[in-house]
Input
Amino acid sequence: QVQFVESGGGLVQPGGSLRLSCAASRIIFSIYTMGWYRQAPGQQRDVVARIDSGGRTNYADSVKGRFTISRDNAKNTVYLQMNSLKPEDTAIYYCNVPGSVYEDNWGQGTQVTVSS
Output
């Protein structure tokens, strides 16, 4: 079955930056729209950024202008560059294929904590 391995999270001060990575396996990565999601404590998991097979992107309003999603099809990896981080960005971040059967399978996620 598909596997997603997220990495790159950590503790950062407000205004700081992090770059998340997600390596996917057992999937024809290049043909799919990939998404980054986040889930804060007590909240549902929501998509914050998407990138389609042609490299077109879209973002949730809450991260627009601060986050950038990109992909490297040769490495089966999707990235999320996060700048100007805010405390409300604190969450576990995951990647997956939005709206697909692959959403039955999730990686362990990577914790992002924004705090002074």
Q: What stands out?
A: Strands lie at 3-7, 10-12, 18-25, 34-39, 46-51, 57-59, 67-72, 77-82, 91-96, 110-114. The CA atoms of residues 33 and 99 lie 9 Å apart. The chain has a mean pLDDT of 96.
